[in-house]
């Protein structure tokens, strides 16, 4: 049985980490969040110690280490701009880090974390759950078995409506979240480059606080992508049925179904990480480079091969 600590226990994604820790028959020893609305812990680990102050949490974890109750993993579900710091904390406590996406905001942060991995001998793992989705794995196998010189046409569309709260929270601040492409798109860009190869061209057509669109030329794919938090972007036929989210990937016009099965993928991620097979710094690098370039590019407007949803 492995001992876990959790930083960012009040966030919505933390529940998936708690469930993954429990489903893999491990134990949550301590959790931290500056917000105290964490009653969900009772459903998984009612005996876990909880802290709202980082300093007391730090002291507690250090005390455990010195008295022989070592923390094996620290799971990190905090705002994006804090990931780098909390990963460093984990490794300095002689624990491996399991971090939500995006691992960090800037490519050079990965280089610095690589140095700390070498110094401590501990590992940093990123949750890249799409790589474990059965239909995504099937798509990768189909592409690898197909013609080696074929270049595919892909449309990626992800609309996940958010209310007014989102634009008050840290997620709306570019310096804290990295913007929409980083915050909700990074794992899609990771998945695409995992299957279709490195980015050769990266063009941004649209970049606003609640939506973005662009074009990626990969080694084996031409990708038009559109990401939105705006309910008005949702197709009308879905709105009629009360839906506020739309997720679609088409490859040469064929829809890839991957809407189901997301909730179990954190548990699958943990199983692999505990076996030492998780996704590390090198696997995270390409998608971080992609979203960094998107964040720092000047949009060219609706020119060239842009995603049709960008017209809305």
How would you describe the overall organization of this protein?
This protein is an alpha/beta fold and 312 residues long. It has 2 domains: 124 residues, NAD(P)-binding Rossmann-like Domain (Rossmann fold, 3-Layer(aba) Sandwich), CATH 3.40.50.720; 164 residues, Dihydrodipicolinate Reductase, domain 2 (2-Layer Sandwich). It is built from 10 helices and 12 strands. Strands 3-2-1-4-5-6 form a 6-stranded parallel sheet, with helices on both faces. Helix 1 crosses helix 9, helix 4 runs antiparallel to helix 10 and helix 7 crosses helix 10. The mean pLDDT is 95.
Give a brief rundown of this model.
This protein is of the alpha/beta class. It has helices at 14-23, 54-66, 83-92, 107-120, 134-145, 174-177, 180-196, 236-240, 265-274, 281-295, and strands at 3-7, 27-32, 49-51, 73-76, 96-99, 124-126, 152-160, 199-207, 211-218, 221-228, 245-251, 254-255.
From the structure above, extract its key features.
single chain; 312 residues; alpha/beta; Rossmann fold; Dihydrodipicolinate Reductase, domain 2; 2 domains; 6-stranded parallel β-sheet; 6-stranded mixed β-sheet; 10 helices; 12 strands; 22% strand
């Amino acid at each position: 049985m492995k001992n876990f600590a959790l930083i960012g226990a009040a966030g919505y994604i933390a529940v998936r980490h708690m469930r993954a820790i429990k489903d893999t028959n491990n134990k949550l020893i301590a959790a931290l969040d500056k917000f105290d609305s964490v009653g969900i812990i009772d459903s998984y680990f009612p005996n876990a110690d909880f802290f709202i102050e980082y300093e007391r949490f730090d002291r507690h974890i250090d005390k455990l280490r010195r008295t022989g109750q070592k923390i094996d993993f620290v799971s990190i579900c905090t705002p994006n701009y804090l990931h780098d710091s909390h990963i460093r904390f984990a490794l300095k406590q002689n624990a491996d880090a399991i971090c939500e996406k995006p691992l960090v905001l800037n490519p050079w942060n990965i280089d610095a974390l690589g140095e700390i991995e070498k110094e401590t001998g501990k590992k940093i793992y990123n949750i890249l759950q799409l790589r474990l989705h059965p239909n995504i794995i099937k798509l990768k196998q189909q592409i690898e078995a197909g013609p080696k010189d074929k270049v595919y046409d892909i449309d990626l569309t992800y609309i996940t409506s958010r209310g007014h709260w989102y634009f008050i929270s840290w997620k709306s601040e570019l310096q804290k979240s990295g913007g929409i492409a980083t915050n909700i798109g990074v794992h899609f860009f990771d998945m695409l480059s995992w299957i279709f190869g490195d980015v050769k061209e990266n063009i941004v057509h649209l970049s606003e606080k609640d939506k973005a669109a662009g074009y990626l030329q990969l080694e084996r794919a031409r990708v038009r992508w559109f990401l939105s938090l705006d309910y008005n972007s949702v197709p009308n036929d879905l709105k009629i049925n009360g839906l506020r989210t739309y997720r679609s990937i088409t490859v040469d016009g064929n829809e890839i179904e991957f809407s189901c099965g997301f909730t179990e993928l954190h548990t699958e991620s943990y199983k692999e990480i505990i076996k030492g097979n998780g996704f590390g710094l090198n696997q995270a690098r390409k998608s971080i480079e992609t979203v960094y370039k998107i964040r720092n590019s000047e949009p060219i407007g609706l020119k060239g091969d842009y995603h049709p949803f960008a017209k809305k």
